[in-house]
Fold this protein.
Amino acid sequence: MVLKLQYKGGAEVPLEVEGICPDTLRGETIPVIEKREVFHGNVRVPLAEFFAVSGDASDACHQWDGDLAGVHWIGAGMTEGTICIGADGGRHIGSEMSGGQITVEGDAGDWVGAEMKGGLIDVRGRAGHLIGSAYRGSARGMTGGTILVHGDVGNEIGHSMRRGLLVVGGGTGDLVGFNMIAGTILIWGESGIRHGAGMRRGTIAFMGDHHPQPLVSFKQGCRFRSEAMILILKYLERLGFPVPAETWDAEFDLLHGDMIEGGRGEMLLKVIE
């Protein structure tokens, strides 16, 4: 059974629904769930004031519907279960989650998967800034799990990323992998500038036919075919992420950087025939 949360509309300021997750609601009855408190601005209100709740919470499967662009923190901190957001979602989707799966059928806001520890987030549209990143003042971004964004994203994705996989089918803004500690980022579309600045380890791979201008603190290595990349592509294929046919046999130019931080990070540029 699925627990359905239909947004009624009418919120004059953003709604924050942190804590309304499959693991925290498992086994609760509809009347109890309706009394769960969420924030309307800085005011606590019962969930039922803005959402029609129906179905069954016993299977840890949630369906959110309606215009949810102003509804933030969906799935934040979840440890298990599945969430499907049937349209656009707000900010902080899946932040600090450690397990389970979130699917966003539309676009998502900023901070998707911020400081994520595990699980899977699949955004079928676009997403905002700071995907998989560290919150301001924090030393580490995502430390595990997988984030897939089929469309474009904004700036500073993977900021201070420690582990995990972040994949973008579209383009990006500036500063991909800023202060990246480890992990893997794949990008198929066009991108901005200053990628990998302050990068210590990890891999940023530009998989398409549009390469950014690398920082001068990245040094040319070699040209090679990556067996590890084939394993990642097979994993993405199993998840249903579209992998262009020409990617499978691609060669990559390897750059080492950021040399200011010791040069142990990798930037891969797909060779354009």
